[in-house]
Structure formats: structure tokens, C-alpha cells
Amino acid sequence: MSWRILVPGVPIYTNLGFVGFCNVILIETEGKYIIYDPGHFGNKEYLLSSLKNIGLSPSDIDGIILSHMHYDHSLNSLIFPNAKIYTTKEEMEYTRNTPDLYSVQYLPDLIGAERMVLVKDGEETHGLKFVLLPGHTAGTLGVVCKDTIFVGDAIKYVIDARRKQTSFAYHNLDEANKSIVKAMQLARIIVPGHDVPFKVEYDRIEPILDYSNSFIVYIKNDIKITIKRDEIR
């Protein structure tokens, strides 16, 4: 069992809205290729290029695990024709029935019921263990892979883990903060939604600098850019 980051998460947002580049993770287990959080259309080309570079195409992917159904984590599910889509009943109901600005309410209909697989907390598939981490959304889903846990926006940024407080909760703030603590107790290495992976050792949090989330901005016209370091929201 192994994993790699296909698209790096970037911890930035703007006064006009979210850029939304999340960590897109490829897991190889028991002869299957599974992607955790395929991202959104803005990084589709980068994702396809990353797959091509390792000799894979969208049709080779057997499964997609959605941490949740916000657009930035889920929209690229549509480009994998043979993949089962794993989510939770809680997330399906939340997506369909809650006025969350970032949830893609029509996504389950586009995917089709025959490809959707609803999983429960503690359930396992292909050596991966599902963990319910509610708060950011009602059915946020983490995955334990050996000594690593992929958490989506249950822990969006490294700073969230250090403070044990979420930056963004759309369902329940208290549950979101509890889910941060829960996730950090389940594995030594944590891959957050929009930041570098980090290690948890003796209550110390150390980013794994082997993974880069460098971000290049190309400017096509005169523009004023103000950069602010936002550590506490």
C-alpha cells in the first residue's frame, strides 16, 4: 500500500473567494488505484498531467473517496468513468438538503446512484479504514492508510491542527474542533485539505518539508496584489 500527492494543496484564499486547490491523493492498494479528493475543474489539467506522468489515465482509477462534496474537493469525480464514488449517508443528505454555498447539490445525480457507495465510520475497504470527521460538513470523511490519515477539510490547514480549532465550519463548529483532535489521535502523519502533510509526535506538529505546495501566480495585466498572512481567523 502506498500513496502520493497528485496535486498539492495550497493554503490561500482571497477577498473575492476561494482558490480551492486541495491535496489530491492517489492511493495504490491491493491492486487498486483510488483517489482521495479529486479536486475541481480549475486543476483538472494538472491532475490529468500528473496521472499521465505515472502512466495512468482516468479510466484506470477504480475508486474516488470524497472527504466531502464541496466543489473544490469533488467536481473532478466526473472525469473518472469506471470509479466507484465513496461518501457517507450524512454527507449525501447534507449536500442535498442544506443551503451550503460550496456543496455541489447536483453531483450525486450526475454521478448516478449505481456508482455511489455509502460507507460508515469504522468500515474498511481494500485495507483503508473510513473515519467520520463531522463539523466542516455533516459527513466529512477521513481515511486511515497505515500510519497516515487523509482528513480533507476536517483539518484544512496546519494552523488548525496547532490551535486545535477549525478555520471554517459550515455544519457545526464544536463538532469540527472535536474532529481535529480525533484525527490527530488516529495516525502519525496527517494530510490536511489545503496544506502540507505534517507529523504529530509527542504533541508536536512538524510539517513534512519533502512535500512542496509552491504556488506560481501569472499576471496578465497591471494589478495591485496585497499579501497578508492570516494565522487566526
UniProtKB/TrEMBL annotation:
* Cofactor requirements of the protein: Zn(2+)
**Keyword check for Lyase:** no
Please state every residue range assigned to the domain named Metallo-beta-lactamase: 21-194
Alphabetical UniProt keywords: Hydrolase, Metal-binding, Zinc
Q: Which Gene3D superfamilies match?
A: Ribonuclease Z/Hydroxyacylglutathione hydrolase-like
One example of the protein's molecular function in GO is: hydrolase activity
What domain of life does the UniProt record list for this protein's source?
A: Archaea
Q: Which InterPro entries does this UniProt record tie to the protein?
A: MBL_superfamily_lactonases, Metallo-B-lactamas, RibonucZ/Hydroxyglut_hydro
Family as reported in the entry's similarity comment: Belongs to the metallo-beta-lactamase superfamily.
Per its record, how is this protein called by name?
MBL fold metallo-hydrolase
The species is Sulfolobus tengchongensis
